[in-house]
Backbone:
């Protein structure tokens, strides 16, 4: 079995060689720009790792791996329009650098390209792979819509939040691993286990992301620490604070969220103080560990020798201690 | 062989029965709204007619027919955002009735649903159908981007215009017929002929659309006659007028296009006067006939008895004399 870094190199090279040219330039320049912004490339690496685990050759799963990465970047592109995000990986977003119409249409084009790439899998697995891919794509849309709905909702329960991040983030991690497994010829049961492994890991990953926003070391973190707090984003941390704090803490949180003008550092330190008082960090870590442990149990259920699974368990562990 | 009206009924019923429910409602309400706005359903009917022509059963091609119609409506939905269109079939557009974010995301969802439906074809034709569908979807995006580019271009040649409508409109008509044929078990060569028939017919259809905007009978026409003239849309008529008129007519056209404030009826009658003087109607009809005749030649090349093709040639003829 090969390592994540080996597959990362394969993925980076394949993205480099991917033909994303065409006319008119207004449509394809943003597509290449988006794909060249970089990123951790976790999902395509997972496709290849899972495929390798079941004895598939890299070439069997590379088109699907690229398709998943192009699809993921398509969702980021359209999400950035909806979130009115000015920056993506410290660079101007497409709707800012070009315009929203071009962002919509080059996103649509990326989605079709992702379908084209995914349909490059071995024909005997095509229908199975497509069924899972399309189902997942629909769920990702549903997750994004729920996320947008949450912005306008007075209260969101922790269960609703976990459901939302399952759809928006976790199912694509599960599907990446499952699609890789299918391409590698895995048994139905093992594909299900690895899907659940990825889904639970994806939830833990997102909770870790929520944590990093507040508790990351600014020197190592790519974004502004506390960005979610300043934008009143309903993260697991905020929802936990609301759920477990007393009436006066809750009222103070609400006051900060409703303030139109404030000193950023003052808002941050006040909210974090409430978080700390209510053990929000520890509660989030506990939830994260819960899903991480579920994931490891799913991984253990796969009918492959434990030694071969080490690449996936190591990767899972790394994702839980990353600092950005 | 069955008639277009028989298949239209099949399509209408299948759209009625199509499951477009799901959560959250903000995502699926617009999808159902869009699909229930109606329309001529020409593309899915063509899928079924072509399938029937080669002896396929309706059930073999119905999923693909629905997929093509959902895809077509997805493109209308996203185009309406980009064109800032307030109305679609006399009803508020999705980005107006809901908002642009919901319009983007419910459009994305429709696109995935169209892929799901299309992948319901017989597995032995799946790869072939998908290859053509995805290629066509990319071309439709390219056509829409070209159309948007034209708005900001000083001059557009007639050749560029024909290329744009080929991509934006005609290839999907060709692909509808070709996909139906593939599902019906047509030979490669016949699939190519019917694709070209559809593509040429699609160009003629769009030229007829451009004509109707100016020369339709307002009592029978669904939209405001002259809408393209008032919005300075670079249609075949306008480009023909620019290409064939003398310097003074061209200058007058430019004056009308640059005027910010004007009397609508005065602008319409002045522009139409220039059109009439330069035989724009006749020139457009001539170009339309050219593509119509090419289409009929393509139809004649298909290796099926002429009698069976009558449904398609009748439909083609009807499309050329429609009044809305």
Residues:
């Amino acid at each position: 079995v090969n390592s994540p870094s080996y597959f990362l190199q394969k993925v980076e090279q394949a993205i480099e060689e991917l033909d994303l040219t065409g006319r008119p330039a207004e449509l394809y320049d943003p597509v290449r720009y988006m794909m060249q912004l970089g990123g951790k490339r976790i999902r395509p690496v997972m496709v290849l790792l899972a495929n390798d685990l079941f004895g598939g050759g890299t070439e069997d799963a590379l088109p699907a791996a690229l398709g998943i990465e192009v699809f993921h970047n398509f969702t980021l592109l359209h999400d950035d329009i909806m979130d009115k995000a000015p920056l993506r990986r410290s660079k101007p977003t497409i709707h800012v650098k070009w315009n929203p119409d071009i962002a919509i249409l080059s996103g649509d084009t990326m989605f079709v390209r992702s379908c084209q790439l995914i349909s490059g899998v071995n024909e005997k697995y095509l229908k199975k792979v497509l069924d899972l891919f399309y189902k997942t794509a629909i769920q990702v849309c549903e997750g994004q819509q729920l996320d947008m709905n949450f912005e306008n909702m007075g209260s969101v329960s922790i269960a609703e939040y976990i459901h939302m991040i399952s759809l928006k983030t976790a199912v694509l991690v599960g599907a990446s691993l499952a699609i890789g497994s299918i391409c590698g010829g895995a048994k139905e049961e093992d594909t299900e286990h690895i899907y659940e492994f990825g889904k639970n890991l994806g939830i833990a990953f997102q909770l870790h992301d929520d944590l990093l926003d507040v508790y990351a070391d600014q020197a190592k973190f790519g974004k502004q620490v506390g960005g979610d707090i300043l934008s009143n984003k309903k993260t697991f941390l905020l929802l936990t604070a609301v759920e477990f704090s007393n009436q006066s803490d809750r009222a103070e949180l609400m006051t900060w969220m409703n303030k139109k003008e404030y000193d950023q550092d003052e808002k941050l330190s006040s909210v974090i103080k409430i978080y700390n008082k209510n053990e929000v960090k520890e509660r989030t870590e506990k939830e994260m560990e819960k899903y991480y442990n579920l994931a490891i149990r799913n991984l253990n259920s796969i009918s492959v020798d434990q030694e071969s699974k080490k690449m996936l368990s190591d990767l899972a562990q790394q994702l839980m201690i990353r600092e950005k």
Chain B touches chain A at residues 22-24, 26-27, 78, 81-82, 100-102, 104-105, 108-109, 111-113, 115-116, 119, 123, 126-127, 130-131, 134-135, 137-138, 141-142, 144-146, 148-149 (CB under 8 Å). The first strand of chain B starts at residue 87 and ends at 88.
